[in-house]
Design goal:
- About 15% of the residues lie in helices and about 30% in strands.
- The chain has helices spanning about 30-35, 55-60; strands at about 5, 20-25, 45, 70, 75, 90.
- A hairpin with a 2-residue loop joins strand 4 and strand 5.
Length: about 100
């Protein structure tokens, strides 16, 4: 699985597609620990068809505990939600303050 950075184009799914492409934005400390060096704010990630949010977290090496909230296409998502080509995914950690 590879990634191509900076693309926000939508890729329509067609029968027989062998990959899906989603744009991933990591927030807060996740951005510093898990993003590819030199990547822009959003990073295109290539996954297998049928991949869900849990698969995406595994792809980035992010534990479920670190991913406090997942937003897909501006809506809160569940970890079991299936991803589609063109989805915009934002992963937010638990925020702490003081």
């Amino acid at each position: 699985m590879g990634s191509r950075r900076g693309s926000h184009e939508r890729y329509p799914e067609t029968p027989g597609d062998t990959v899906i492409r989603v744009t991933v934005t990591l927030s807060g400390p996740l951005r510093n620990h898990y993003r590819s060096p030199g990547s822009s704010k959003g990073e295109e990630t290539v996954l297998s068809p049928g991949a869900c949010v849990a698969d995406l977290l595994t792809h980035y090496g992010i534990s479920r505990e670190r991913a406090h909230m997942i937003i897909i296409n501006r809506r809160k998502a569940d970890i079991r939600m299936t991803l589609n080509s063109g989805d915009q995914v934002r992963i937010l950690p638990l925020a702490a303050g003081g």
